[in-house]
Amino acid sequence: MQSLFRSKGAAFGAFAVAALLPSLALAAGLQPHRAIYEIELDGTQVSSNISGLTGRLLIEWTGNACSGYRLQQRLMMELSTADGGQTVQDLRFKSWEGPDGKEFEFDTHILVNGQQVERIFGISSKEGQAPKVIFTEPAGAPPLRLPDDVNFPTHFLLSLIEAAGEGEKTFSNPVYEGSDVETHFLASAVITQSAEDDTVLKNAQMTGAAHEDMQERTWWSVQLAYHRPDNRDGLPEYQVGYHLYENGVSSALKMDYNDFKVAGELTQLDYLPSEPCAP
User: Are 119 and 138 in contact (CB under 8 A)?
Assistant: First the structure.
């Protein structure tokens, strides 16, 4: 589930969109949908100051293979610390990605207790030049050079689904998701196909079309590790695990930030109308 799950907010680092995320009507395998996840703390290490965490994540994915793909995410979290402190974090992300994966526009906001503490706003293109990101916010941020084979969120997800569908057990590629002004990440996945029903779906409220369709969809268990390209010790910055469906829907989220872990349960799923390509 690529994009918002690398988020640690102001209390625990830079916000990001995790490439979780994220139908054949799209001519590229992605079903337009809105998904809601209930977020809670799933274990901490001794080094963590976090004693409690609850929240809600909203993901909305729309668009098509002609006009491009739009992704919106919002994560509201209330964090408690061991010293009795409480913080409300509001993490917002929206993006547009070209149908061929060569253009990417994004806008990331982080608010803490109602006050904006960070914004990352930029555009990137792989068309006819070395890929790079140009930032409008934060002011003065220099352009970020990207590898030639970098993926943006939607096309990373499409490539991951394709690899899983072909029976690949691993997949890796550089990815940039609008979460950082200093670096991209190398995302490496371990993929396991399951022939069993996804029992976590039993607790999710789904519209009729979604409920009927999801029962027939193939899914895989995916474990993604995100590495900084300049990291020499081999340890990932964070890891994301989830059940990935062939239509781009995700469930059973597990985010591991090394000193604490977060779980996300899919509680509501609505299919959104497909947008046919204009004649």
Answer: yes
pLDDT, tens digit (0-9, with 9 covering 90-100), for 161-219: 999 999 999 999 999 999 889 999 999 999 998 767 667 677 889 988 898 888 888 89
How much is the pTM? 0.86
- DSSP codes joined into one string, the chain: --SSTT--TTTSS-----TT---GGGTSSPPPEEEEEEEEEEEE-TT--EEEEEEEEEEEEEEETTTEEEEEEEEEEEEEETTS-EEEEEEEEEEEE-TTS-EEEEEEEEEETTEEEEEEEEEEE-SSS--EEEEEESTTPPPEE--TT-B-HHHHHHHHHHHHHTT-SEEEEEE--S--SS--EEEEEEEEEE-S--GGGGGSEE-HHHHHHHTT--EEEEEEEEE-TT--S---SEEEEEEEETTS-EEEEEEE-SSEEEEEEEEEEEEPPP-PPP-
Burial of 210 (0-12, 13-18, 19+ CB in 10 A): buried
Mean pLDDT across the stretch 65-86? Answer: 89
